[in-house]
Amino acid sequence: MNDIDAWVWWLVGAAALGIPLVVTAMPEFGMLAVGAVAAAIGAGLGLGAVAQVLVFIVVSVALIAVVRPIAARHSAQRPQLATGVDALKGKQAVVLERVDGSGNGRIKLAGEIWSARSLDTDRAYEVGEEVDVVDIEGATAIVI
Mind telling me which residue stretches traverse the membrane in this protein (predicted)? Predict the structure, then answer.
């Protein structure tokens, strides 16, 4: 055991921390692995055992303190590219059959025929009028 340099042990530790990173998808293990690689570099440069452990701790804690909040902020953001029915909200459509509050009307929205109803139950839209889609409830577009 004494024949193996300390930097090799740090690299083995980094690889060992990489396994749970892949298995559990917890990025903290990756940050600890980077700390172990930094300690391996310190060991390769001739730092003592205490200094190697301090390098590991400082780099690992710094990465967790800096990267983790950034990652959390990015994961909390909604995607900028709307897909599915979310992409249809705010689009304009053409009335094909009279649309009122009953939900029996039809519109042409994004090249497809949709059932539609008016957001304002007292308002009706006649054939040929352009309307704006404000929401989608099931297979019915809510328009104004």
Answer: 6-23, 30-47
Question: In the structure encoding, which two tokens stand for residue 38, read together?
Answer: 């930094």
Tell me whether strands 105-109 and 140-143 are parallel, antiparallel or unpaired: unpaired
pLDDT exceeds 80 at position 96? yes
**Which pTM does this prediction carry?**
0.54
Q: Which residue has the tokens 């990489």?
A: 18
List the domains of the chain with CATH numbers.
6-76 (no CATH), 84-143 (2.40.50.140)
Closest CA to 36 of 19, 20, 60: 60
